[in-house]
Design a protein that fits this description.
Helix content is about 60%, strand content about 15%. By secondary structure, the chain is α+β, with helices and mostly antiparallel strands. The strands form two sheets. Strands 3, 4, 6, 8 and 9 form a five-stranded antiparallel sheet that branches. Strands 1-2-7-5 form a four-stranded antiparallel sheet, with no helix packed on it. The chain is globular.
């Protein structure tokens, strides 16, 4: 070892890379604790209104349950509750005074009318009311064996069935000309690019409805980063195999990326049923079934590189890509959470984008003409167009 060189075995040397992070934490902490005096030199923002965040309204026989959260920095007290502009008596399942991001459930004994619109309001001690309009009052499904099975069937029809049908294109793809096969591989990239942008848009839409205290767009970035890094790690592990990320390895990555996206689709369906929007839920089921057939084609294209694909392997790919829709439907139906929705769709975007990179590398290595080939460019655009057209059935 040269003179003056730091010892790699020393404990201090190992902690040295953490110094910038620790110093940054100290600076940020100092600003948070006393930064208001600095901001006051520029100007003052008006205080936020004392509004609650009504997360969920549940309807049970002769009862309404309202889940309210405090998104404000200061404490908020639930002073009164209204139903259709009339003040009603209520009880609380939780504290009346809520600290930041704390929640409480308001229980109102009320003889609501099924399928009729209804408005609920929660007023703070400062006299400011938060109102939520419910288009139609429908009894909230409670956990049951029948409902649990029903959500599973819906998720199976939305996720597994159409993807399995799309995988039936595999024999035809095996007989395709190399140029056509390159086009279909690029089509997979187009499908996933569309899913990534669609998921990212949905994540930002849901994030905009969250209180700023929950992290804003940083929550979306967290979901994208975690899933992308996770998929990168998985890709590196698969690349250690004999076939690398070609053939079934790449098909598996595509299936996982699509599966994370279908988790969000199941969440949307389950939430729509939980909130009584049965017509919307049915419409989403039909639309997603049509939409997801093309996803099976996206998995089948890289699987053509494998010498032999058994029926069980194809079934496993269909389950990996489609079964998360079942889990999403359960979560949306029984434990819908706005933060989870943001993370699910953000994770779907990150996973899809990472797999697009893997598909691009594969096409660049194996396709005649590489990424500049007209077949590849046409296939990529065709994948985006296919997803756009089938997405019209969802609205």
């Amino acid at each position: 070892m040269e003179a003056g060189a730091p010892s790699r075995s020393s404990f201090g040397w190992r902690l040295l890379p953490l110094a910038p992070i620790l110093l940054l934490a100290l600076v940020v902490g100092a600003f948070v604790s006393g930064g208001s005096s600095i901001v006051d030199l520029i100007g003052k923002n008006p205080p936020p209104p004392d509004l609650f965040d009504i997360q969920r309204v549940e309807f049970q026989p002769n009862e309404i349950r309202i889940r309210a959260r405090n998104p404000q920095p200061e404490e908020l007290t639930i002073a009164s509750v209204t139903v259709d502009d009339a003040i009603v008596p209520f009880t609380l399942d939780g504290p009346a005074t809520l600290k930041r991001l704390r929640s409480s459930t308001i229980v109102v004994a009320y003889d609501w009318v099924e399928n009729e619109p209804i408005g609920v309001g929660v007023t703070s001690s400062t006299g400011i009311e938060t109102v939520l309009a419910v288009p139609a009052a429908v009894e909230t499904p409670s956990p049951s064996a029948g409902g649990f099975f029903g959500y599973a069937v819906i998720g199976f029809l939305v996720g597994v069935v159409p993807i399995a049908l799309g995988l039936l294109w595999l024999p035809s793809l095996r007989r395709a000309d190399p140029k056509w096969l390159a086009a279909f591989m690029a089509l997979t990239g187009g499908l996933l690019s569309f899913l990534a942008v669609e998921s990212l848009s949905e994540a930002f839409t849901l994030q905009a409805q969250l209180p700023g205290a929950l992290g804003g767009s940083g929550l979306v970035l967290l979901g994208v980063a975690l899933s992308a890094l996770g998929m990168t790690f998985l890709s590196s592990r698969l690349a250690r195999g004999r076939a690398g990320t070609a053939g079934l390895g790449l098909a598996l990555l595509v299936a996982i990326g699509i599966g994370v996206h279908n988790l969000g689709e199941g969440l949307a369906i389950g939430t729509s049923f939980a909130f009584g929007e049965l017509q919307l839920g049915t419409f989403l089921i039909v639309g997603f079934m049509i939409h997801n057939v093309t996803e099976g084609l996206g998995i089948a294209a890289p699987a053509t590189e494998a010498r032999r694909v058994s029926f069980l392997q194809l079934l496993a790919l269909a389950v990996i890509a489609g079964a998360p829709a079942i889990l999403g439907a359960w979560i949306g139906g029984y434990a819908s959470n706005d933060v989870l929705g943001v993370l699910f769709f953000a994770a779907a975007a990150g996973a899809a984008l990472q797999v697009v990179v893997e598909v691009g590398r594969f096409v660049a290595r194996r396709a005649p003409g590489g990424l500049r080939s007209g077949w590849v460019i046409g296939g990529y655009l065709a994948g985006i167009l296919a997803m756009y057209i089938t997405g019209l059935f969802i609205g």
